[in-house]
Design brief:
Largest sheet: 2 strands, antiparallel
Distance between the termini: 52 Å
Number of domains: 2
Oligomer: single chain
Strand order of the largest sheet: 1-2
Helix content: 40-55%
Number of strands: 4
Length: 159
């Protein structure tokens, strides 16, 4: 079982549904041991960086049309399969599928996998610099995509 709660500074607030579920679970499983762990919610900045920087670069470095949102969506799905995989039964086999990118653990895993792949395949640290991406985001969003910005600033070569 997995329950989530929020700290109010002194105690954990599980909410009504989770509290009832925990009480029922305790009744059905006396003397069960539990482990509490913390997690940070995913960052909207990191989510924007994934979709605005890493996925377009992954598409570009794989020869895809980085200007086409459908192509970027397909490469995003491929990235989930490669860097955040799970397996589901299909007949008598297990098939590899991409797990969700929701939540900080999954998002970090996906960003780390994409960054590592990009570095292994010719991307420079400069291309993956979150500060450079944020500079583009603050200045050029809506006028040119991140890849076009990198090409215009001669940070990325098309040939």
């Amino acid at each position: 079982m997995k329950w989530t709660a929020v700290s109010d500074g002194e105690k954990l607030d599980f909410g009504d549904y989770n509290s009832a579920s925990i009480r029922q679970h305790c009744k059905e499983n006396p003397r069960m041991r539990y482990i509490l762990s913390t997690f940070k919610p995913e960052s909207s900045k990191q989510r924007k960086y994934l979709h605005g920087c890493l996925v377009p670069l992954f598409t570009f470095f794989n020869g895809g049309n980085y200007k086409d949102s459908d192509a970027k969506d397909r490469f995003f799905e491929l990235a989930k399969v490669e860097f955040n995989p799970g397996h589901v039964p299909f007949g008598k086999e297990l098939k590899k599928v991409g797990l969700t990118s929701k939540g900080s653990v999954n998002l970090n895993k996906l960003c780390d996998g994409l960054s590592e792949w990009l570095m292994d395949n010719g991307a420079t640290v400069d291309l993956l610099d979150p500060d450079k991406y944020q500079e583009w985001d603050a200045t050029y969003t809506g006028t040119m995509g991140y890849i076009e910005y990198l090409i215009a600033t001669k940070s990325l070569s098309t040939g």
